[in-house]
Structures are given as C-alpha cells and as structure tokens.
Specification:
- The structure is a single chain.
- The chain is of the alpha/beta class.
- Helices cover about 40% and strands about 15% of the residues.
- The protein contains eight helices and seven strands, in the order E-H-E-H-E-H-H-E-H-E-H-E-H-H-E.
- The protein has helices at about 25-35, 45-60, 75, 80-90, 110-135, 160-180, 200-205, 220-225; strands at about 15-20, 40-45, 65-70, 95, 145-150, 185-190, 235-240.
- The protein has a seven-stranded parallel beta sheet with strand order 3-2-1-4-5-6-7, with helices on both faces.
- Helix 4 runs parallel beside helix 5 (about 110-135).
- The chain starts with 13 loop residues before the first strand and ends in a 16-residue tail after the last strand.
Length: about 260
C-alpha cells in the first residue's frame, strides 16, 4: 500500500472521532483521512473499527489509531487525554459524534435506566471528553471541537422527550464551553447534519425507506470546513447543506 502524499485541507492534523465504527462517524473518519488527517477512532466494536481502518488504508490514508471504548464507562474516557498527549503531544480536532436514541416512549412510561443511558452517552460522555481533551486541544495551533446535535430545542415532539432533553443539554453545555473559550486558536461548534440514512434512523422510523435519504458520506463537507485551520466560526450550530427541496428541521438520530 502506498500512502497518499501529505496534502489536503487537514494534512498533518490529528483528529479524534467518537462513534466512528459506522454511520456519520465512519464517513467523517474516511473523509478526514482522505483530506490528509491522522485519525483516532473510538467505538465499542473492535471489528467495525478495523473495517473502517481497512477502508482508510485501501485508499492510501494514514493508518488509523483504534481505541475501543464504551462511552458508558466514563472513567475510561478520562484516560484519552493522557493517552493522546503521550502519543501525539496534542489533539487538533475532536468530533463528538457518538450518541444513542434510547427508546421513543411517553415520558411518564419511560424506563429510568434508558434515561440514564441516553444522558450518559449523549451528555456526560461529551462532558468527560471536553474535560480530558481541552488541555491537549489547546496545544494545537488550531484546535477544533465539533459536536453532533439535532434540532430539538423549542420543539414539543411527543415520545422524543428523553432524546430531546439530552440534545438540549448537550447544546447548552457546548455553547457554554464555546463562550468560555477566549483564545482564537480553539474553535467550538455544533453540527446538525439533517436527516441521514443511518442504523439509528432506521430504529427511530422502522419501515421508512432509506433510499431517498442522504447517506453519511454526503454530509462530511461541513465537518471538514469546521475542522479546517482557516475556519473562524465559533459557538454556532451549523447546518449541513440540504439537498434541493429537502426539509432540514426534522427530529432524527444522526450518529
């Protein structure tokens, strides 16, 4: 295998991507590698991470660093900062993509264990990522932290109460983090990818045909733009570009 030359918008950049074994996370990993980044991939399933790494290697990208990780194990997340600092000395890009739908059900009938899982994966895990990775993002000349969200704020969507609450909490936390960052070499943003054909989308809308939906590889442009060292956007919720006639404002699971 011949590695691609160190060119592309993200050449020389180190990027950590959570939920990287499938869906949007895997698509962003492939795209970042194609843009010259060295990617660090986390997810629960080792085999699926290896498949993404094989795809990256097959196209000449830098072999990925794989870190199997269950985001429910919050204490393990705390080890990422020291591990990455020891290996790379910095982190240039954090993509907080991993998330879970939980179960769509009336709030009054919801299982507390499901709420605990949804809040842990969608909110607490990202908090722990910020906490452990902020110091090494600040070692980068152009640190970028990007988190995947959904447009739930201000809506009342029956049966989406637990998921919606977690996304609103995530957005509030990330916006506060962005407001607390006063240095221009660290930019923090949220991305709303829109309706994307993923496994978790299929779980939320069983029986829906995914053929008309955008696929994960179609929404990677916005991640590259926000990860680019030249990007100056900060503290925003940025929408992926819709297809002509596509409605972006729809609840969906995006990881």
């Amino acid at each position: 295998m011949t590695l691609l030359p160190a060119t592309g918008r993200l050449a020389g950049r180190i990027a950590l991507i959570t939920g990287a074994s499938r869906g949007i996370g895997a698509a962003v990993a492939r795209r970042f590698a194609a843009e010259g980044a060295e990617v660090v991939l986390t997810a629960r399933t080792v085999g699926a991470l290896e498949e993404v790494d094989d795809q990256i290697r097959a196209t000449g990208g830098i072999p990925a660093t794989l870190i199997p990780l269950d985001l429910m194990n919050l204490d393990e997340i705390d080890q990422l900062g020291p591990i990455l600092y020891q290996k790379f000395g910095r982190l240039d890009i954090l993509i907080g993509n991993a998330g879970t739908l939980g179960a769509l059900a009336p709030v009054a009938c919801s299982d507390p264990k499901i709420l605990q899982r949804v809040m842990t994966v969608n909110v607490m895990a990202n908090y722990r990522l910020i906490r452990t990775l902020d110091p090494i993002l600040r070692q980068s000349p152009a640190g970028r932290a990007i988190f995947v969200t959904d447009l739930m704020e201000g809506e009342t969507v029956p049966f989406w109460g637990l998921y919606g609450a977690s996304k609103i909490a995530l957005e509030t936390m990330v916006r506060a983090y962005a407001a607390e960052v006063t240095r221009p070499d660290l930019r923090v943003n949220l991305v709303y990818p829109g309706v994307v054909g993923t496994a978790l989308r299929a779980k939320a809308f069983p029986g829906e045909s995914q053929a008309p939906l955008r696929q994960p590889d179609e929404v990677t442009d916005i991640f590259v733009e926000l990860a680019d060292p030249a990007c100056t956007r900060h503290g925003e919720t940025v929408h992926a570009r819709p297809r002509p006639g596509e409605t972006m404002h729809a609840p969906c699971e995006t990881c």
